[in-house]
Amino acid sequence: MAKGKKFKKAVDGIDTTVRHEIFEAMKLAVQSAYANFDESVDVAINLGVDPKYSDQMVRGAVTLPHGLGKEVRVAAFCKGDKQAEAKEAGADFVGDEDLIEQVKGGFLDFDKAVATPDMMAKVGQIGRILGPRGLMPNAKTGTVTFEIGNAVKEMKAGRVEFKVDKAGVLHAPLGKVSFGQEKLIDNLRALVDSVNRLKPSAAKGTYMKTMALATTMGPGIKVDPLTIRKLSEG
Fold it and tell me: Do 84 and 96 fall into the same domain?
């Protein structure tokens, strides 16, 4: 596909084949943004795991210190006193069977979903609707819990769920270009720390093999994996 003039101007002077020191890579990613809207910044990490084996699956969630820079609409599937707890925490849509019926009818005007364990048998009825959209609550990511108020607050604050794909690559958003380099690095540090803590014992060799940063419209900026440890050093 042909690249536009704005794209070519944005990448002028940037060698996208070179692996950059991690702080320099973030700086270049932010500088290369050229759209007339506040672009998102995303990271892709190629992990040294084989996801076809269950003991090498990497999946989790992290609350980014600076959030994602956008409003997150949360649906909470719960009943009784937990409904009041979810509403007080800021959930946008709260219900039990009634909310499930709305989803069956096509309602999907939310970005995240949480549920209490006693609702999961019924939420399972809409698993085929929520699952493909990444909205199905899951205990492994902390979205199936009786602490539903805390879960809602974390999501509204910028909680990011991640899961390695079939190719061993993990994709995650880090925030907006307008955050600036320092806040984006803080968010990246939180993500990398979380992914490192989830390293499977069955994974052999280099865990974080490659990394790339990119804005919504910008080019992919490759990161020298040997410099990733600088994130932990501050």
Answer: yes
Count of domains forming the chain: 2
Count CB neighbours of 9 within 10 A: 11
Query: Which residue range is the domain that position 40 belongs to?
Result: 5-68+159-232
Q: What DSSP assignment string belongs to 66-80?
A: T--SS---EEEE--T
- For residue 1, what are the contacts with CB-CB under 8 A and spacing of at least 6? none
Backbone φ and ψ for 198, nearest 5 degrees, come out as -95, 10
How far is Cα 147 from Cα 136, in angstroms, rounded to an integer?
17
Residues 168, 114, 177, 66: is their CA dihedral positive or negative? negative
Round to whole Å and give the CA distance between 104 and 77.
Answer: 14
- Enumerate the β-bridge partners of residue 146: none
pLDDT digits (tens, 9 = 90+) for 95-150: 999 999 999 999 999 999 999 999 999 999 999 999 999 899 999 888 999 999 99
Residue positions counted in the chain? 234
